[in-house]
Amino acid sequence: MSTHSLSVRGLVAGYADRTILHGLDLEVLPGRITAIVGANACGKSTLLRTMSRLLSPRAGQVLLDGKAIHRMAPRRVAQVMGLLPQSPIAPEGITVADLVSRGRHPHHGILSRWSRQDDEAVAAALEATKTLDLADRAVDELSGGQRQRVWIAMALAQETDLLLLDEPTTFLDISHQVEVLDLLTDLNHRRGTTVVMVLHDLNLAARYADHLVAMAGGTLHAQGAPEDVLTAETVRAVFGLDSRIIPDPTSGRPMMLPIGRHRMAVE
Amino acid sequence: MTATATPLPRAGLAPRSNRTRLLWLGAMLALLVLCCALSVAIGTRDVGLDDIAGALRGRADSIGQAAVAARIPRTLLAALAGAALGVSGAIMQGVTRNPLADPGILGVNMGASLAVAVAVAFFGIGSAQAYIWVAIAGAGATAVLVYAIGSLGRGGPTPLKLALAGVAISVAFVSLVLAVMLSHGNVAGGLQSWQVGGVGGATFARMAHVLPFLAAGFAIGLGCARKLNSLALGDDMAAGLGERVALARGLASLGAILLCGATTAICGPIAFVGLMVPHLCRLLAGVDHRWLLPFSALAGACLLIVSDIAGRLIARPSELDVGIVTAFIGAPFFIWIVRRARVREL
Amino acid sequence: MSAVDAIATGRLRRARRRGAVIGGALALLAAAFALTLMLGQSFVPPGTVLRVLAGGDVPGASFTVGQLRLPRAVLSVLAGLSFGLGGAAFQIMLRNPLASPDIIGISRGASAAAVFAIVVMGLDGPMVSVLAVAAGLGVALLIHGLSHRGGVAGTRLILVGIGVSAMLDSVIAYTLSRAPSWDLDQAMRWLTGSVNGAQPAQALPLLVSLAVFGGLLVSRARDLESLRLGDDTAAALGTNVALTRVLVILAAVGLIAVATAITGPVAFVAFLSGPIAARILGPNGSVLVPAGLVGAALVLGGDYIGQFLLPARFPVGVVTGALGAPYLIWLIVRVNRAGGSL
After folding, report:
1. Each residue's pLDDT tens digit, B47-87
2. Which residue range is the domain that position B278 belongs to?
């Protein structure tokens, strides 16, 4: 069970000449899965990038265990919090085992040597993501779904209690999307890892998240259990779309069906 | 493939009516006359009006008159070379649909140097006329080579690939030129003058050798203006409009190569004029090559004359070769274009 | 075999291969070094070479080996190490084999400063190196600043670098054309790089630079390696990306500039070493140190080829330039085929 806390206080952040987040507060629930959803350019990736200190805030703070994350030593943060960016780069020809070993980076100084503990962490990460049999393959040769599992394995090898993921399912077909989200849920159940992820697909977010955060225009529009957040009103406010919400017959979670201007059987 | 054309920079100020363009063309012509006058009057040595008047009437009695008399062919050469480079740059940018195309950047000048070095070292060629043929052949072969390398594979000739192909060819050719020089002592002295382009040693006799080539180049280039307009829409579209694409491209390239090859043969490498001029002219003339080419000729002539005057003034009492001056104006311009472009267009 | 053992075995195998590659490269380099001392216009037997190296006075051999061949070989190895390390550091940091200092203009900056200091200001010795390093850093800053537009894009950085190089090229050409006496050897050095006329004293600045800048670079190798995963991933792994960049740029520019101030910009060694080393090493760890060794071998071998194996005597840069250009072309073509982001 995760013992670390992550929270956001009055966060203002953006790029060069644009402010994207306008004063945002968020408390990440330890040991739970949080999904952040919203329309394009609503600031969800910016929020995740600021929370993971890739981007410095203009005002406000991100607190890791009560301390301002942007003032902590990068290595200390990386021992507690892992991050999978949207488009990580695999060096040409690198093998899966080698790439996953890179996750041990924050646990090594300039002179420290590789230990049995490191091997164990790498092996455990490969097993958890079912990529052990790929260990000696080159990452370039893998399919999109396999590659995403390998990247998650790298973040797992980091052995952090917190894991942040920026759209881990983009560019994957639907079966691989489900596979990745199942994997993250396994992790959360078995290790108690706190997972925070930005997701594009509203229905998958509602199905897999314990806590759903809906953003609009750089602020939090709503947050809470998916049943409370995913309503026709929220969808209209966040996406500008008319919709119907029905319970998903399999999971019991809410499910959004968009309503367009055509093909309406019932008026 | 080449069907997805790299869009040429938008010409925001392009005037609609031909009358405005004619007015601008007149203004440029006046500017050129002014530049020529300044170029004759200004130099390392200060001369009086009477000396200038005397020299223009063909007298060379005083030192002042002699100095001015030497400036007349020089000014003419600068104007010719500038016009040739401007038009050749505009054609190259049109043919390659690439905003960074320029005879200097694409390694064409090094090709001319290498051809001349090889011709002198191995074939004992010495006459000025043969020299020019060889330089033009070298420039042409290099242009084709760089373009071929830069456009291999998918994506066609992107600015980055063309520039890199130019760098690769330039470095290889520098090595080869040096290798030829080292093994043949009789070529070594020539290298110094091949490194930097200049118009300082101009004489009417030397110019007479390249004049036919320049005239042919201008004629072909201007004659291709309409074809370039079709090519600008992409190969497929040009073919759809009934243009024989390969022929149009080959003919236009021939014109550009004649112009830059002949210029390089007499002046040495002068980079960036062919890059800058068409970009500036597109602001005034728009993207229609029937207007762009004459504008580029006039603007190129003005630019090279002004650069030459600046070179004479900056380093007084000595002189700065015009190739150095254009590199110093042109490289920042090149960087400006690169900065302005969106990344995926590079 | 448990999963952990499998991982451990794989890692040990990679470490062993890496050790073998580095050891092999060192052995080859040592052999090449010994050969260049023995071979040349005249053959000097190994025993005599050893006696000269030990300080013994052998008529004839003391001059050929001690005064001519030894300084030349030492300078080649040290300069090659510097070019290889510095070039590979840039390529790794910017994740692009084309972003090597000799293509983006940093070598040209150092070269222009050195030729200006020597030819126009009449300086020599350490002052030239200092000026070259300062100019190299200046160019690096300039290129970085100019290609920065909401983040540095590799493509734009390379093109800006090519533009800056063109300007610096004309500075070099101009300075050379103003030289009081047109000295072909001098021109060769600044246009293409050469170890002709090597002096034992020239090795000192190179040794210092390798110790300071090379040491800094190698101590940062692990952080540098993490940058290959992308800046975001590197930051997520706890690398201080900004600090690593600053230190790596400083160290790599220092290495390149000091070497350039002495041998001139030996064409394409910085560009070639990293990719060749990566090809030999395979996916077995950081390419940095192997690239240094490859660089040393390139300069040493290129100089030998240029001196003795061609019809006339050529400086090393002519040979490496002729080698590097086809590779650059191949790189352009290959990336096109792969539809990469070039």
Report:
1. 777 777 777 777 767 777 777 777 888 899 999 999 999 99
2. 18-193+202-345
> What CATH code is assigned to A6-258?
3.40.50.300
Total number of domains in chain B: 1
d(CA B233, CA B248): 13
Q: Is A18 on the interface with C (CB under 8 A)?
A: no
Chain C: closest CA distance from residue B245 (Å): 23
Between A and C, how many residue pairs show a Cβ–Cβ distance under 8 A? 102
In a domain, B331, yes or no: yes
Residue C31, chain A, CB below 8 Å: the answer is no
Say how far apart CA B74 and CA B207 lie, in whole Å.
10
Q: List, for residues A7-45, the tens digit of each pLDDT value.
A: 999 999 988 778 899 989 999 999 999 999 998 888 898
Provide the β-strand partners of residue A150.
none
pLDDT at residue C182, as a whole number: 56
Mutate to test the interface with B, among C102, C148, C164, C167 (most CBs of B within 10 A): C167
Domain membership flag for residue B131: yes
Task: Please state whether at least 3 CB pairs lie below 8 Å between chains C and A.
Answer: yes
Of B161, B176, B179, the CB nearest to C336: B161
**Does the beta carbon of C151 lie under 8 angstroms from any beta carbon of chain B?**
no
Give the torsion sign (CA, C304, C310, C315, C321).
negative
Which other chains touch chain A, taking contact as 3+ CB pairs less than 8 Å apart?
C
Residue A77, burial from CB neighbour count under 10 angstroms (0-12, 13-18, 19+): buried
What ipTM describes this predicted complex?
Answer: 0.83
Answer yes or no: is B257 within a domain.
Answer: yes
According to DSSP, the β-strands at A219-224 and A211-216 are antiparallel
- CATH code linked to domain C3-338: 1.10.3470.10
